[in-house]
Amino acid sequence: MELNDRKLKILQAVVADFINSAEPVGSRTLSKRDDIDVSPATIRNEMSDLEEMGYLTHPHTSAGRVPSDKAYRLYVDELMSHSELSPEEKDVIREKLDQGTEELDKTLEHASKVLSEMTNLVSFAVTPKVENKIKYINFLPVDESSVVLMIVCESGRVSNTAIRVNCPYTEENLTLMSKVATHNYSGMSVDTILTQDIMEEFERDLPQLAAMSSSVVPGFVKTLEKMLDVDLYVNGYKNVFALPEFKDVEKVKDVYDIVTNKDQFSQVLVNRDNGLVVTIGDENSPDLKDFALITADYKVNGKMVGRLGVLGPKRMKYDEVTSVIKYITDNLNQTFEIEGEVDDE
Amino acid sequence: MELNDRKLKILQAVVADFINSAEPVGSRTLSKRDDIDVSPATIRNEMSDLEEMGYLTHPHTSAGRVPSDKAYRLYVDELMSHSELSPEEKDVIREKLDQGTEELDKTLEHASKVLSEMTNLVSFAVTPKVENKIKYINFLPVDESSVVLMIVCESGRVSNTAIRVNCPYTEENLTLMSKVATHNYSGMSVDTILTQDIMEEFERDLPQLAAMSSSVVPGFVKTLEKMLDVDLYVNGYKNVFALPEFKDVEKVKDVYDIVTNKDQFSQVLVNRDNGLVVTIGDENSPDLKDFALITADYKVNGKMVGRLGVLGPKRMKYDEVTSVIKYITDNLNQTFEIEGEVDDE
DNA sequence: GTTAGCACTCAAAACATGTGAGTGCTAACA
DNA sequence: TGTTAGCACTCACATGTTTTGAGTGCTAAC
User: B158, A142: Cβ pair inside 8 Å?
Assistant: First the structure.
């Protein structure tokens, strides 16, 4: 059987209708549309064919049709309209984006927030772990019982942690430890450092400071480990409460589990293809089989530094959402091109 | 009418039963209990009296009794058992607490996590902005274009920020700035400092470093402002999904709104009395009228530096929860006391 | 004062019925 | 030959009815 024009038109209408209403779509409803002027009976025949071809399903005999994952895929690839955002929408987005640009490292997080506000879906942002080479390491005195550990990366990123120590120390000791740490680990990437037995190395190089080391090293290791973590921000979770597909608590819980199981979820996100990617239903991992996921990257000087996207029901306004995501990432990329030039001075 | 012993015993049984079952408690159920050996009819008479006195309510004529807020209050104040935690429970808690003590500023956050795990409720931690006196201020070199600002409070809390500077600096300059800043602001509370014209003071005391100051001070001010924010951590939100009172989505959403409206919620928390405080139902603000809130403080050297607690249904295991909170805060306080003693030597 | 007994209440479960949006099929039509 | 009207059929859902059972309140007897 072949997907002729009329079948495509009907399929498109079913998907579009279902996206709007979240209700199975019947033949009579479709026959009332302006762009379809055949009788319900004809539509039924076509829908029956479409079902046979795997594009539609039937919750039960006397219900309307619901799009299958295959139908959504076809819809996204071929059928849906690619409307440009209106100038007003663009202005709104740009204005929202501008409100969060003071703090450099919050930019992505903020962009994800804007994304959720514009789409009324759950949005997220993830910073993939990059080649994070250490430049130097510094232990600094704070007070009798704590020190600050400062790790500077070659990228310029600085990581600070306050560490509690349970033995007295002198400033010289700290300087010594800083020197040893920097000497041993400077130029290495964080994950390489973590493969080593850090405690042993400190004890070897600073036998006289064994007590200090045992007090400080665990915090040091923990900080390094944390630097490896990809950061995952989730925004707009409350949007699920408004969607009809989440009117029972179990579903709400499922989404909550997905977005709070950060390790697993960020893994999923990091492993995606580059660019604007839409995955629907069973194209995702099993726990996401009832959802659609849309992601896009943003880059600084051509290097991918973050990814953001939305998680929502398969019944999603794909055209709007992709437009918004695309506009936001384009904007971010542009911002950073300019910033990048300023930095180079 | 008087609350005689039998009435108290029955009331206690009703509350305890309802806390366990979340179902209205009937007279027959109570009559089966070992500690009550009067007939259902007698119990009914007593319950009828208790209802008249405002301790019990009746969802409908043919249903069992449900405790009123007044009953919960009496239960917490007088009726409930104050069981000690078992040694095993204590061990579990202490072990969990120990897993998160390397990073000083995460201690409270971690404790709140432990609290939610032990109680299966939503827990939170808040660092009130009260009495946040600065101990000293330190500008540290990172690389050519950035320095780290480290602010240490008397409470031991450390705040770090990377600040970008757009003029060359020497280590001596930074030391000078650190000294001036510490001299000027040490012992003052953050909000007091912010009322002053910080830029002018730097320029007055360090006229030779005007360029540096103008580059660094905005970041300094911003960091101070951020220190005024109370931090609110919420843990264990997913526990609400398991509670029968939250089986419809609206309720789940209510809790979500409460704990994510961080400004408002932290205001509520900060404004509470000190010590172990239990508020139930209409003792809370209207949006919390269906919940009970338990908080306790933790102190460093006798000074309150954080508050943590749980949010749950009024039907809460008050005895267990208060025991756990008390044990956790005692532990935190102790940890910090010991450190204080070590410090003194 | 306590309790057995009984009539009464009412939510919730179980069952029955009607409604309507939908289908699939067939036969007639253009 | 594709399209459509017509009709029997299906089935979720809403509505109405009945049954059940846990609970109460009252009264009279112990």
Answer: yes
